Amino acid sequence: MVNTKVSLCGIELTNPIIPASGTFGFGAEFAEIYDINVLGSFSFKGTTAEPRFGNPTPRIAETPSGMLNAVGLQNPGVDHVIAEELPMIKKIFNKPVMANVSGFSINDYVTACEKLDSQEQIGWLEVNISCPNVHGGGMSFGTSAEAAAEVTRAVKAVTKKPVIMKLTPNVTDITEIAKACEAAGADGLSLINTLTGVRISLKNRRPILANVTGGLSGPAVFPVALRCVWQVYKSVNIPIVGMGGISSAEDVIEMMMAGATAVEIGAVNLVDPYAGKKIVEDLPAVMEKYKINDLSEIIGVAHG
Amino acid sequence: MKDTVFKILSNKSIAANTYEMVLAGDISDITAAGQFVNIMLDGFYLRRPISVCNAEDGKLTLIYKVVGKGTEYMASLAEGAELSVLTGLGNGYDLSLSGDKPLLIGGGAGVPPMFMAAKKLIEAGKSVTVIMGFGRAEEVFYKEEFEKIGAEVRITTVDGSCGVRGFVTDAMPEDYTYFYTCGPEPMLKAVYDKSETDGQFSFEERMGCGFGACMGCTCKTKYGNKRICRDGPVLTKEEIVW
Fold first, then answer.
1. CA distance A96 to A99
2. What is the pTM of this model?
3. Does chain B have fewer CB atoms within 10 Å around its N or its C terminus?
């Protein structure tokens, strides 16, 4: 029997598979087709202090081996999430869930995190300072080491839960941002958010997305994600949640060998709604194939 | 929602740029006319959402227009090929509100879902009129199929090469109890403006997942945000915000 357990910021996961925010809603659509308790956890839809409609449509465009999205953080707001979504999640998921939080000002992050801090179902706060699809917030906090540290400090001051800062790859040196978050007290880091991209309709001679740019995800970004996790693992001592194009149990192991303690799976949930379950089920056999008895032993092993 | 493998029984051109694909597989999750399926295609990352034209006796009929590389690839698939298909997506039409003389209005690629709706309504004893709008005669399909199941068919073409010259709204009868429609958004808006009864509209939007997870296709309605793929694609006349 192989051991798939890992510990993320002091909370044990039965396996490291976590559906990524924005690809799993609040879990309900997936709980209809499989028991989502097989997952390690899941990161729910990016939540802001106030409700948001998000961007105009079209919000989705296909790319080679991936997709662009410019949803723009559509969500019902933190109060609705606490009043409606968390009680619903309680019925379908009996493990700690990851709360993904976004904001447009330091105060926004603080407001949402403070409210979520009191919710016992929530294991971790994943603070998104890397959304490429909103203006005047989101990624602008994640592209400056100083601003990233400021958000980290502000959030840490209002919560006892582990704080995982979600980083963008759209920077010159991701390790600078990672180190700044660590120094400001982050308990973990998750990376990567999507890479900014554009697609143009030949027929309309205009960008496909109403927002013009969108975030690239899917297998196309997997090597970029691996590179970022590799670099950040070398630079910090806090755990990393690796994500970006993971689509199989093999990808999970590769990401962990690069330095991830746990992984998030994103775009693949959208093309195969059973992907989370399949990857969890495939993992033990793939571990055996590569002579891995205990998954925690391979974290960062590729660094030698 | 179900993810199952379907086998292609036939895949043939039935009009300009228009193909009819018949597949065999588990159709048990397709419960209403106006629902859609989402098809995985080799070499394409996202699935292709296609409305259900008919589903009975273990057979799924889809009619699709070749509009890009994905549908071009679909058109090249041979009999016997297998496809992963997510079925049972979308709310579909509520046919219980039809009254005795429902009007069905389809424009171009919006015609196919009207077939299953017409069939079910006729089986329920309703007197069904179908208006089908196309650009030109070469694009017209399924006229005989609709007539065979007992629908009164009216065709419109923009260039007048078949049926009434003009748009679907130029062929709307005076007397109908309710309507169901699907087609390009300008057509839906024209039907909305001209119609005098309540009715249901099926919308199209670029989708990520097709089952409500990604928020890629959200629209505003009188009753809040709705996901076209999950809470739609069918919206009622009174809830639409243009």
1. 10
2. 0.95
3. C
- Chain A residues at the B interface, defined by Cβ less than 8 Å, are 22-25, 29-30, 32-33, 45, 53-54, 57-67, 69, 71, 74, 208, 218-219, 267, 269-274
8 Å CB contact of A62 and B44: yes
Residue A1 inside a domain? The answer is no
Lateral strand order in the sheet of A122-128: A17-19, A262-265, A240-243, A188-191, A163-166, A122-128, A97-101
Max Cα distance, chain B (Å): 49
Q: Quote the CA–CA distance of B125 and B100 in Å, as a whole number.
A: 8
Instruction: Give domain status of residue A87, yes or no.
Output: yes
The residues of chain B that CATH labels 2.40.30.10 are 2-89
CATH entry 3.30.365.10 includes domain B95-202: no
**DSSP secondary structure letter of residue A56:** P
Q: How many CB atoms lie within 10 A of CB A250?
A: 15
Per-residue pLDDT of chain A (304 residues; tens, 9 = 90+): 899 999 999 999 999 999 999 999 999 999 999 999 999 999 999 999 999 999 999 999 999 999 999 999 999 999 999 999 999 999 999 999 999 999 999 999 999 999 999 999 999 999 999 887 777 666 789 999 999 999 999 999 999 999 999 999 999 999 999 999 999 999 999 999 999 999 999 999 999 999 999 999 999 999 999 999 999 999 999 999 999 999 999 999 999 999 999 999 999 999 999 999 999 999 999 999 999 999 999 999 999 9
What range does the domain containing A33 cover? Answer: 6-303
**Which domain CATH number covers A197?**
3.20.20.70
Look at chain A and report how many structural domains it folds into. Answer: 1
Fold of B2-89: Elongation Factor Tu (Ef-tu); domain 3 (2.40.30)
Structure tokens at A239: 């755990």
